[in-house]
Design a protein that fits this description.
Blueprint (H helix, E strand, L loop, with lengths): L7 H4 L1 H9 L7 E4 L2 H11 L11 H18 L2 E4 L5 H15 L4 E9 L10 E4 L20 H8 L4 H21 L4 E8 L5 H13 L5 E7 L6
Parallel strand pairs: 1-2, 3-5, 3-6, 4-5
Keywords: ATP-binding, GTP-binding, Nucleotide-binding
InterPro entries: P-loop_NTPase, RapZ-like, RapZ-like_N, RapZ_C
Organism: Agromyces marinus
């Protein structure tokens, strides 16, 4: 594991990784987290950020993000640890690398609510807010996109089927390219207002369709389900 404290070694990291790629199978995992989470973590251990100098903790975090931008951009796997404890992180990494031996690429299809912010680890983001919101139907409001009644309502709306057909067709060359470039993990996010109805239903259907494509190991994640 390498972080900003690596000094001279850290500055040569990318060159070393590229050199290793010519000889062995190398995967760079980049661990990230929201600023607020990082502040809480530093506060909990009562340590200053190594780059903050005479500034604030947020100044140090910003400086680190700036230095790490190129490494983050070129990483093979990006993991947002904001909502993970150490055991969940360990399980996620284990599952990710275990899948690499069985599939060309591990795809996470994730629903989310725009009002809670974009998922920072998403490679591709789509917007489900073009569909009528089941929230305004009193019979569906308390349910979620995992319920058949909500799912049927969403998928039967004008444009839902066309969107899924077109999006799947657009994803195929992207995922093929990821495999050619040895990108072993991709996160495809679909959002709606609260991440409860439309995005959940579309994610479930898209994941089912992606699961029929050879070489993909597909999992589903509903980031904001239950927040309301």
């Amino acid at each position: 594991m390498v972080d900003i404290r690596g000094g001279e070694f850290f500055s040569e990291l990318q060159q070393m990784v590229e050199s290793l790629r010519d000889k062995v199978d190398v995967r760079v995992v980049f661990l990230d987290a929201d600023d607020a989470v990082l502040v809480r973590r530093f506060d909990s251990v009562r340590r200053p950020h190594p780059l903050q100098g005479d500034g604030t903790l947020l100044d140090g975090i910003a400086a680190e993000r700036n230095r790490l931008a190129a490494v983050r951009e070129s990483s093979d796997i990006l993991v947002d640890t904001s909502g993970l404890n150490i055991h969940q992180l360990a399980n996620l990494v284990t599952e990710t690398f275990a899948e690499q031996g069985r599939a060309g690429i591990r795809v996470t299809v994730q629903s989310f609510g725009f009002k809670y912010g974009l998922p920072p680890d998403a490679d591709l983001v789509a917007d489900a807010r073009f569909l009528p919101n089941p929230f305004w139907d009193p019979d569906l409001r308390a349910l979620t996109g995992e319920d058949a009644r909500v799912s049927d309502y969403v998928l039967e709306q004008l444009g839902a089927g066309e969107f899924l057909d077109a999006y799947l067709a657009a994803l195929r060359p992207v995922l093929d390219g990821y495999q050619r470039e040895s990108k072993r993990h991709a996160t495809i996010a679909i959002g709606c207002t609260g991440g409860k109805h439309r995005s959940v239903a579309l994610v479930r259907e898209l994941a089912a369709r992606l699961g029929t494509i050879p070489g993909l190991a597909v999992s589903v994640k509903h980031r904001d389900l239950g927040r309301e």
